[in-house]
Amino acid sequence: MPGLSDPENREKSSSPRSSFYWKLSSAFAGIVLLGALFVGLLVRYQLSADLRGELELNLRRTCLVLAPDARKQILAEHFESPDEELRKLGSATGLRLTWIRLDGRVVGDTHAAADLMENHDSRKEFREAMAEGFGRQERASSTIGREMLYVAYALEHEGERIGVIRAAMPLDDIQKQLSRVDRIILVGAALGALGAALCGLFVARQITRPITNITRMAEAVREGDYAARTQDLPHDEIGLLGQAINELSAELTNQLADSSAEKGRLQAVLAGMVEGVVALDDEDRILFSNQTARDFLDIDPTDSPDGRLSEMAELGGLSELIRSARKLSGPARATLSARRDGAELLLDAHATPFGTDEARGIALVLNDVTELRRLELVRSDFVANVSHELKTPLTAIQGYVETLLEGAIHDPDNNIRFLEKVDVHTGRLVHLVSDLLSLARIQSEESVSRLTKVDLVAVVDEVVREKVDEAQKREQKVLVECDDPRVLVMGDRDSLFQVVGNLVENAIKYSPREETIKLALGSRKDHCWLEVRDRGIGIPANEVDRVFERFYRVDKARSRELGGTGLGLSIVKNLVAAMGGRIELTSKLGRGSTFRIELPAPESSS
User: Fold this and answer.
1) Structure confidence at residue 451 (pLDDT)
2) Which of 26-35, 276-285, 583-592 has the lowest mean pLDDT?
3) Binning pLDDT at 50, 70 and 90, where does residue 152 land?
4) Any residues with CB less than 8 A from the CB of 154 and at least 6 apart, and which?
5) Same domain, 184 and 301
6) Distances in Å between the alpha carbon of 574 and those of 107, 220, 546, 580?
7) Which among 304, 348, 548, 597 is placed 20 to 30 Å from 489, CA to CA?
């Protein structure tokens, strides 16, 4: 193009070019400097954490090594000061060792007189050690005036804690190492920034020349001269930029042709969407609708494709939604309900106006939220049930604790009874939370490991041995009926133990005293079976299908009295299903229940 290499134009662009040199070189230098400082800070942070972690580990080991001697000293009636060897060890290694009694009184220290030191029961590392076994804290020592890392270890005797041994080390060496790292980081960052500035200055000089020509050519294209081209382009990224701009004019022509094809592709995408999409004109005639929308709206495909939506679809609230979107001149949303094949269909509908005020169309997007609402209802019911189950024992515990705090703790006739009640309700809470966690693991497919061959007879025998004491307390008997010495199933041993244990425990709880609980098991060609039979309270026929629901109880009062959470049978059902089996229940009210489990045999699963 004329004028691209004109001396006058070169002279006019010399000043901006010089400014560009410095901007680019400064940018390079700044980026390198910031990057180096950022990496340096990360290295410094990690190094500091590693050094402190290693120092803490060494102090823990020191506490464990010296714990036996400290325990003997603290248990002695008259405490003997640390011997000369211990003081030498503290002086040689830089360690400060302190022995503290249970009440926080310091009874020995390698760097100070114990009788002049203040009580340590308020020190963070002492409280943590008494609570958790080990404690740590970083702070300046009030005794020796240096920044220290303290690690404390609780000493025990016959199961009771009698004091604490504490080891401490100054953090001076760590700070010195970090200071050296800081200096290295600063020098490296400065050198990198200087190199980047020089490199940026060189690159800026190479970029400026072709950029000037490309800029003029871009301005010509902007003004409509699509025949404008840039000549003598370099063979680098700037040259690629100039070539791309050269091709812009040709591309603009091609874009017009491509827009038509793009419209067809867009319609194909809309047709394949899982959401229903409908476009309406200002008179609510259908301009476009995909198959999903026609299914949602139950539109007959033989109807006129440009008919009015109100005449073709029956969906309560749809007309009101469209009017609302036009009135608001913005998006409107509503949940619409319809009946399809005898079931309720819930649609989340979004209506968005488009076009001018004189001819305002509507874009309607429909999304099936029937299953989502069902899951939300299930979740809501579950939260309500959990809240109710947690509230009962918590309320009881709160009531007993308040009674004890108000003075009943000194009442010898009732205080133990109240504490026993608190213990019972606490156990119920623990059992409930444990069952909830088990159910969550099962439903997230994390409870059953790889299925293997398991001897069901051995599992049943182990469960019976574990539950026999509980049955004997109720003067009950647990009998196992099996003709085969081994009954192999494909399953997970821990899961099978939990399944059988829950069923036997339920049978014991809900059977009268002096009754017999029978377990029968055997195998068929393709499966193995186990039945747990009891003579308990039984289950009404209309409630048999609900016993495997979470928190469902036939006799709620008795179940809570016996400590049941209402989750056991739900856990059993999910575990059996996870192992590829099934569970059935037959029961008669007042005459007992029989739970039958069928699991795949090894031959059938292979």
Assistant:
1) 80
2) 26-35
3) very high
4) 129, 130, 133, 134, 161, 163, 164
5) no
6) 59, 72, 14, 10
7) 548
